[in-house]
Design brief:
The chain is an all-alpha fold. It has a domain of 38 residues. The protein is built from two helices and no strands. The longest helix is centred in the middle third of the chain and has 22 residues. The radius of gyration is 32 Å and the shape is elongated. It starts with 19 loop residues before the first helix and ends in a 50-residue tail after the last helix.
């Protein structure tokens, strides 16, 4: 697809120094199926969203980074087959209507 604005300047690519900690973090995000580029974009967007939310809500002074950030998530639900075992606490009882034919007064 041709660029509709050929004179528009492209943004310069971001360069980040990698170390063992960053590589380990990228590997963690890769386990969720993200590429290196997607992982960096996701992480930056995630933290930026947290900062904007804190500042907009007035919970933290504008422009001041919080010392700690926490993440909340719901419990992952994996559908499982229902438990069809029957647990009885007492022996089943029968009523006269449910007794087999010939069992009552057969003696």
């Amino acid at each position: 697809m041709a660029d509709t604005q050929p004179t528009k300047a492209r943004r310069q690519n971001l360069t980040v120094r990698r170390d063992a900690a960053l590589d380990a973090d990228l590997a963690t995000l890769a386990r969720a199926g993200l590429s290196t580029s997607e992982a960096v974009r996701f992480a930056v967007a995630f933290v930026a969203h947290g900062y904007r939310d804190l500042w907009a809500s007035g919970l933290h002074p504008d422009g001041v980074a919080p010392r700690r950030i926490a993440m909340r998530t719901e419990l992952h639900h994996q559908p499982q087959a229902p438990d069809l075992r029957v647990v009885r606490t007492a022996a089943p009882s029968t009523t006269p209507e449910a007794a087999p034919q010939g069992a009552a007064g057969a003696a």
